[in-house]
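From the methods appendix. Each design record in this collection lists the tokenized structure first, followed by the designed amino acid sequence. Records were kept in a plain field format so they could be parsed without special tools. The example shown here is representative of the layout used throughout.

RECORD:
FOLD TOKENS (411 positions):
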């Protein structure tokens, strides 16, 4: 793995050793010498090569540095991969600098970045394509050096294919979809340091302990069949307003909601007012850190998500990993990867609603409440959610299959 980091940050990482040699590259025709750190990833056997920079590089500088460093390290024999994966647009030029037999260009966000400015294009110079329609596109540059392009979902692929850079790719260059895992550290309920119970017992008993701990922390009244609901980030659009309106309308039901948000975020004032109006039924975790969000997710029975522009499905994937039922819009990656739960056949792993309206959101949450009240359905459902969470091991297997097909294809 070749990546950039500040010199100070790389020096603080255990297991990374600073080498005596430097790596030569150039940006805009100006030579640069980069500090090289080497080591092994803490949770795998991957070799890490980290290029230390004195100051955060701009987007164009990052592209030029990675391309030049890859070429320099390849010339010295330190980088000689059979397979190269360019992760994100900043790695677009580096793909062409490697002699790997299989080269994959991954667009992990499901979106393409803005075209390069005139100054950025001038800095990259000869690395860019000469075609007017793609000369300011990092996506076009990545397509030039890749055998295949990978996106996080079919919805993302459909949305991104209108980008001029992707339109300029070779006619036989496939655009493939791979579901990304979500169990990267610290997202593992068995070891997550944010959780009060991460050792011993079963996954269900650990989740029950988290539920009790969140109830104590937020001073909420949670009965044995109460649906403990949490939320994803509150947006400032109609979807965010519909989520808050639905929470307000759920007061007569055996539902307790913990709203997780940042101070100053859209909707936080209304969320604070709901918590004051319904003490013990609605609680607010304001200024919530990532650890707070993981804790609330692990404790909750269900998570209410309002993002109707999700092209990755990471929020729902994390919910599944922690045994939390996703309640999400039936669009984007959610539509691609999730199946609406059917009690009769006991199939599915989410509750999907069709529109960002108060009525639709309220109806979806009440469906979750009816499931929570039926222990014969609920207990196996929680186990089923955990089993169906997307994991990076499955992502790696899918990418390995793409590599094998790429190597086996003629030309």
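DESIGN:
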């Amino acid at each position: 793995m070749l990546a950039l980091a500040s010199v100070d940050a790389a020096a603080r990482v255990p297991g990374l050793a600073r080498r005596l040699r430097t790596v030569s590259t150039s940006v805009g025709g100006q030579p640069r010498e980069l500090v090289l750190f080497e080591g092994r990833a803490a949770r795998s056997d991957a070799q890490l090569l980290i290029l230390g920079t004195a100051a955060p590089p701009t987007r164009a500088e990052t592209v030029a540095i990675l391309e030049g460093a890859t070429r320099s390290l390849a010339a010295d024999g330190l980088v000689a991969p059979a397979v190269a994966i360019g992760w994100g647009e900043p790695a677009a030029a580096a793909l062409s600098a490697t002699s790997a037999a299989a080269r994959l260009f991954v667009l992990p966000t499901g979106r393409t970045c803005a075209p390069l400015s005139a100054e950025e294009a001038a800095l990259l110079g000869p690395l860019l394509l000469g075609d007017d329609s793609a000369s300011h596109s990092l996506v076009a540059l990545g397509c030039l050096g890749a055998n295949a392009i990978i996106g996080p979902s079919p919805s993302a692929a459909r949305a991104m294919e209108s980008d001029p850079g992707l339109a300029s790719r070779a006619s036989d260059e496939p655009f493939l979809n791979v579901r990304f895992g979500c169990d990267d550290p610290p997202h593992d309920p068995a070891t997550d340091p944010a959780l009060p119970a991460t050792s011993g017992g079963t996954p269900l008993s650990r989740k029950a302990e988290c539920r009790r701990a969140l109830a104590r922390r937020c001073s909420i009244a949670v009965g044995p069949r109460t649906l403990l609901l949490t939320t994803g980030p509150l947006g400032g659009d109609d979807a965010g307003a519909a989520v808050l309106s639905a929470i307000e309308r759920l007061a007569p039901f055996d539902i307790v909601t913990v709203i997780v948000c940042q101070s100053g975020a859209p909707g936080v004032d209304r969320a604070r007012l709901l918590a004051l109006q319904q003490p013990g039924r609605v609680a607010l975790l304001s200024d919530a850190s990532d650890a707070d969000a993981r804790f609330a997710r692990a404790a909750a029975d269900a998570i209410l998500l309002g993002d109707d522009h999700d092209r990755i499905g990471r929020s729902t994937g994390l919910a599944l990993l922690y045994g939390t039922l996703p309640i999400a819009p039936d669009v984007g990656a959610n539509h691609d990867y999730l199946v609406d739960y059917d009690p009769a056949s006991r199939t599915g792993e989410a509750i999907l609603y069709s529109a960002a309206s108060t009525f639709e959101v309220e109806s979806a949450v009440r469906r979750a409440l009816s499931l929570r009240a039926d222990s014969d359905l609920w207990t196996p459902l929680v186990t089923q959610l955990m089993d169906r969470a997307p994991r990076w091991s499955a992502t790696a297997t899918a990418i390995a299959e793409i590599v094998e097909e790429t190597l086996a294809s003629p030309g």
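APPENDIX NOTE: DSSP finds 16 helices and 14 strands in the chain.
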